Amino acid sequence: MVELSKANSYLESHLFNEKWVDKTDPVKESALNTAENILLSHFNFRDGAEITDNYFHAVCEQAIHLLNFAPERFKLQQEGVTYYAVDGITFTMKSGLISQVAKGFLKPIIKLRVGEAK
Predict the structure, then answer these.
(1) CB-neighbour burial class of residue 100 (10 A; exposed 0-12, middle 13-18, buried 19+)
(2) What are phi and psi of 110, to 5 degrees?
(3) Phi and psi (nearest 5°) for 18?
(4) For the residues of 68-110, what is the DSSP string, one character each?
(5) In the predicted structure, residue 71 carries a pLDDT above the cut 80
(6) Are 4 and 32 in contact (CB under 8 A)?
């Protein structure tokens, strides 16, 4: 689990950190917990990955990504929606639930999946 004080230190100099700075500590804790749960459910980590700086950075980046991500879009993607149209305007959503920056930090600490699971 990522400590809130360490996350605050990391994110206080982060670009686009307004959504983090404006939140209360319980909301920040929730964002960190949700970020960590999402990453743990999507990736197979190498042994000891959770104590690395890369893991810490990935969780923080995922937390700020979740706070900056529009809640409505997040809910739609959780429900499997990939596109929608309003008044003739079509919105297409890629799988943006996981931060691209977090993915970059995770590359060295995740196990690669080889072959097909049966």
Answers:
(1) exposed
(2) -105, 150
(3) -55, -40
(4) HS-HHHHHHHHTT--EEEETTEEEE--S-SS-HHHHHHHGGGB
(5) no
(6) yes
Please state the separation of Cα 118 from the chain's center in Å.
Answer: 28
Structure confidence by residue, pLDDT tens digits, 34-60: 999 999 999 999 999 999 999 999 999
**Of 2, 98, 93, 82, residue with least CA distance to 43:** 98
Q: Give 28's Cβ-side CA count (13 Å radius).
A: 21
**Would you list the domain boundaries of the chain?**
4-109
Distance between start and end Cα atoms, the chain: 32
Percent of the chain with pLDDT over 90: 64
Asked whether the beta carbons of 36 and 66 are under 8 A apart, the reply is no
* DSSP character at residue 20: H
> How confident is the model over 10-35, as pLDDT tens digits?
999 998 899 999 999 999 999 999 99
DSSP letter, residue 64:
H
